[in-house]
Amino acid sequence: MPNIKSSTDLRNNYNEISSFCHETQEPLFITKNGRGDLAVMSIDLFNRFMAKYELYQLLEQSESDFKNGRTLTFEDSMNSLRAGLKNGEI
C-alpha cells in the first residue's frame, strides 16, 4: 500500500516525513489539491533506484548489441583487453 501525504503535511511535518523515508526505505507520495504531485524518498533509496536504472540501461544496450550482431568472440575480447593493458589504455 503506498504511503500518501498532502503537501501541507510535508510543509508542517518535514522531520517526521524525513524520518519515515529513512527508516522504511520506501517512497512517500505527496498530493497537491488531492492529486498526486511528488514522490519523496531518502537519498539512499534514490541511489539504489538510479543504480538499478543504469543497470537496466546497460542490459538493454547489451541485448540490442547481441540482436544486431555487434558482439565479439571471447578470444577477440581477450585480445582487445590484453592490447589495452599493454598500451596502457586500461
Description:
With 90 residues, this protein is of the alpha+beta class. Helices cover 61% and strands 17% of the residues. The protein has four helices and three strands. The protein has a three-stranded mixed beta sheet with strand order 1-2-3. It is elongated. The mean pLDDT is 96.
Secondary structure: elements and pairs:
Blueprint: E1 3-6, H1 7-12, H2 14-24, E2 28-32, E3 35-40, H3 43-67, H4 74-86
Parallel strand pairs: 1-2
Antiparallel strand pairs: 2-3
Structure, briefly:
The chain has 90 residues and is an alpha+beta fold. It contains four helices and three strands. A three-stranded mixed sheet has the order 1-2-3.
Give the key terms.
90 residues; three-stranded mixed beta sheet; 17% strand
Strand content: 15-25%
Helix content: 55-70%
Poorly predicted ranges: none
Computed over alpha carbons, the radius of gyration is 22 Å
Shape: elongated
Judged by helices, strands and strand pairing, the structural class is: alpha+beta
What is the makeup of the main sheet? 3 strands, mixed
Mean pLDDT: 96
Number of strands: 3
Order of helices and strands: EHHEEHH
Number of helices: 4
Cα distance spanning the termini: 47 Å
Q: Taking strands numbered 1, 2, ... along the chain, how are they ordered across the largest sheet?
A: 1-2-3
